[in-house]
Write a structure and sequence with these properties.
The protein is of the alpha+beta class. The chain folds into two domains: about 270 residues, no CATH class; about 150 residues, no CATH class. Helix content is about 45%, strand content about 15%. It is built from 19 helices and 13 strands. The protein has a six-stranded antiparallel sheet. The radius of gyration is 24 Å and the shape is globular. The chain starts with 10 loop residues before the first helix and ends in a 10-residue tail after the last helix.
Length: about 475
């Protein structure tokens, strides 16, 4: 219908249309009130304790089950990395905590959840405009789910990190409470922001520096950021990861962490992975395909990464232009989210697509090369640049000030991510403006850190009794 035809619509129909819009629209204050009303069914204090479910399964059994489909020769490396400390164990036990979180209270409000929101899954990276921002940077487990699950995993990781640093129990707990308070305050801000302002909001490097606790830490952060900005693929990554063999470069083998697959591991090898690369190309936006088409595939090798991902099919692929301009892409296997059994199945046919859609929804800006594909082995993958001014923290040597500041920063990034997909006003209304929710989440975090310690000891015992093989890297 032409716009000019609107003048012919009877006045009564205009009124009905206006009423329908008014009924659909609810002000932030109205939505906050709706969120507050949810406390009648699930009081905020209900979040404040952790007790194992009476039917809680043996944690070692769940961890062993999570090895299904992984490369058997790499599983001992995974267990060796989890064995390093309770903090490392926590990083590799997202599936275990997902089962536990499913038995905790939640308000009924859902967001696009990270699924594995611990401290080390946040960090800095470059936007397509070459600005450096801070955000969630690992979304392998992303899925729509209760927002509380992410916040509880984050705050539990704060307490576990504090214990890892030998901080006092009170300091560790206060850092977790500071994270909960940061989430509450930031969500309150997002509740009254315009929708576009929420969408465009980002934690850029200048805002990050402002959050650091003192001048010395700020200077260290600025030097680290400048160093990462100066690194580039040609001068740093290429000499480290590749070598010239004949006319084309080849990725260097460094077994067992980097190696070239053969046989059943690489059914696409004989065709140069052409089918998988073509499917990945189709997942890219059309304008990015023009850029990607300038590069030509050279080589692919398996690369062991992280803790929770060890044993899955993760690889790096080297592409070059005719001018020997290299591009490294990371190809990570995407399985069903650890949340799926408790929050519902993904609506996407490819789990790589699930990860990428969730990543674009939760991050303020994303890598232009994000895409997905499916291998000839039937496995789903997502693709991103291997490194692009990516910065992850190293917690060793932190004091309570740094842990507290970093925990608040991660909670801010989490609130921003949740506000992009969820109803910030309703979440804020449920949380409220007092410290009641902060205290409850802090109590949960401390008690779940105790549970993590018990589960870690169970793993240690299983390894000592040789029920599980662990390979400790030198």
């Amino acid at each position: 219908m032409a716009i000019g035809a609107l003048k012919d619509i009877p006045h009564e129909k205009h009124q009905k249309s206006d009423q329908a819009i008014a009924h659909h629209y609810r002000s932030p204050d109205e939505r906050r009130a709706e969120g507050k009303a949810l406390r009648d069914a699930v009081p905020r204090e209900a979040h404040g304790s952790w007790k194992p479910h009476k039917d809680r399964r043996n944690p070692v059994e769940i961890i062993i089950e999570s090895n299904e489909g992984r490369l058997p020769q790499l599983v001992p490396i995974r267990f060796g990395r989890m064995l390093q400390s309770p903090f490392a164990f926590f990083r590799g036990s997202a599936r275990l905590m997902a089962a536990d979180l499913a038995n905790t209270p939640n308000s009924g409000l859902r967001v696009q959840a990270c699924g594995d929101a611990h401290l080390l899954n946040f960090g800095g990276f470059a936007t397509p405009e070459r600005n450096v921002i801070f955000d969630i940077n690992d979304l392998d487990e992303t899925l729509p789910a209760p927002w509380e699950w992410d916040l509880k995993r984050l705050t539990a990781s704060v307490v576990i990190a504090g214990r890892h640093l030998d901080l006092s129990e009170s300091d560790s707990a206060r850092a977790a409470a500071a994270a909960a308070r940061s989430y509450r305050e930031r969500m309150a801000d997002y509740a009254f922001m315009r929708a576009l302002d929420v969408w465009y909001d980002r934690i850029d490097i200048e805002r990050l520096i402002e959050e650091t606790p003192d001048e010395e830490v700020r200077e260290r952060a600025e030097k680290r950021i400048e160093k990462e900005r100066m690194r580039n693929v040609v001068e740093h990554d290429f000499p480290k990861l590749a070598e010239q063999e004949g006319e084309l470069p080849r990725i260097k083998d460094n077994p067992p962490l980097i190696f070239h697959p053969a046989g059943e591991l690489a059914p696409g090898l004989t065709t140069g992975y052409t089918e998988g690369i073509a499917a990945y190309r189709e997942s890219l936006a059309e304008h990015v395909r023009v850029l990607f088409d300038r590069f030509h595939f050279c080589d692919l090798a398996m690369k062991v990464v992280g803790v929770g991902s060890v044993g899955t099919f993760c690889a790096i692929a080297l592409f070059i232009t005719k001018e020997d301009d290299p591009l490294f892409l990371q190809i990570k296997e995407a399985n069903a989210s650890v949340l799926e059994s408790y929050a519902g199945k993904s609506i996407y046919p490819n789990h790589g697509q699930r990860v990428i859609v969730g990543q674009r929804l939760m991050q303020s800006a994303s890598d232009v090369f994000l895409g997905w594909t499916r291998g000839k082995n039937g496995r789903d993958y997502y693709v991103r640049q291997l490194r692009d001014v990516k910065m992850s923290v190293i917690v060793e040597g932190w004091d309570v000030r740094i842990l507290r500041a970093y925990a608040k920063l991660c909670a801010w990034a989490l609130a921003k991510a949740h506000a992009r997909s969820g109803d910030a006003a309703m979440i804020s209304g449920y949380i409220g403006s007092s410290e009641a929710f902060d205290d409850a989440i802090c109590e949960f975090a401390v008690e779940y850190a105790d549970q993590n310690q018990r589960d870690y000891r169970a793993l240690v015992k299983a390894i000592r009794e040789k029920r599980i093989e662990a390979a400790v890297e030198s």
